[in-house]
Amino acid sequence: MEFAWTAEQDAYRQKLKTTIEELLPDNWTTDIAPHSYGSKEQIEYSRTFCAQLAERGLLVQQWPSEYGGGDGDPWQQWILAEEMMLAGEPRGPQYMNVNWIGPALMAHGTPEQKAEHLARIASGKVVWCQGFSEPGGGSDLAGMKTKAERQEDGSYLINGSKIWTSYSPFADYCFLLARTGEQKKAISIFLIPMSLKGIEVHTFPGLVGKGHLNQVYFTDVVVPESMRMGEEGQAWPIITYALRFERVSVARFHIGRKVLDRCVAQLQAEGRFSDTAVRVRAGRIAALLEAGRLLSYYVIDQRVKQGSDDVNGNIARVSVSAATMELQAFIMDYVPDALTGGDYVINEFFRANLSSTIAAGAYEVQLNLIAHGALNLPRS
């Protein structure tokens, strides 16, 4: 299968490239981009950059016009993702708002929730975090302990904690999952302001960069029923819908090829790329990245033609994760100096992707979904 870009898609990509070049400040590569896009520096800049993209009609071009978009298609979202990754993701955490929180709201939000949130996301001035994982729970969403207990007045009282909540120190809202019943899947979704009384964010250090490693505590947080999205205890179909967009939304293979090329260029400059073992490993990684690219393109093609990607989204996710892990190992083995004050592009790729096999569902969970959905293997 050949994925050739149309003249319109090429023009759209060139427009994005030109716009990015015009908008990024002179100190982008020295003072902002070297920080993680979960950092205060990138999050603050994202509000400026995304607002400027929105003014030019480029932030949510693929959204329906009724929600502030340009009636585009998934290919435009993907081209946007590729160009943003190559530029160092100046959208910061707002890729998440655009890629899956917005679509989830369009599909499952109430008219009031759509009116409250979609215009803000489309403006490029609001930051979200997601409250999924919990201490000791990891990707086992059904095992979550955070509870939302209904009160006599119809509101909910939320108690518990979430972990690995990237962007939460500076987020305006949280896409929160909480248990609303004793059954395994009795989980509900709440769209809550991070300014509510009883919410505390504790940050801890780690290799993945500032802003990504946080634990959020909810202590007697009162949430009105109007902030619940979907029916009580019926979050799973919405989560499944949202994760389809999250699993294939970050063009890791695109930035991965740029990073591989930079690693090879450094090895060539140092006279170390003539080693056959090194060349074979670089070639293998290039092939894995290309496989990830084609599988991701296949998923986007399915979305355009059928509106769904089924298990192929999981397959693409696993493929890209495998390529990422191979490239990280290559960096450690041959250009480790890039991680200690060297090339910031290599450095940020390495650190930002340490969680690539965990985010949007752990690698092992993806393999299980592929086993059931593609190979029809029985559940153990």
How would you describe this protein?
It is a single chain. The chain is of the alpha+beta class and about 375 residues long. It has three domains: about 5-125, Butyryl-Coa Dehydrogenase, subunit A, domain 1 (Orthogonal Bundle), CATH 1.10.540.10; about 130-235, Butyryl-CoA Dehydrogenase, subunit A, domain 2, CATH 2.40.110; about 250-375, Butyryl-CoA Dehydrogenase, subunit A, domain 3, CATH 1.20.140.10. The chain has twelve helices and eight strands. The strands form two sheets. The protein has a four-stranded mixed β-sheet with strand order 1-4-5-8, covered by helices on one side. It has a four-stranded antiparallel β-sheet with strand order 2-3-7-6, with no helix packed on it. Helix 5 (about 95-110) runs antiparallel to helix 6 and helix 5 packs antiparallel against helix 7. The longest helix has about 30 residues, at about 275-305. About 45% of the residues are buried.
Structure in a nutshell:
This protein has about 375 residues and is an alpha+beta fold. Helices cover about 50% and strands about 10% of the residues. It is built from twelve helices and eight strands.
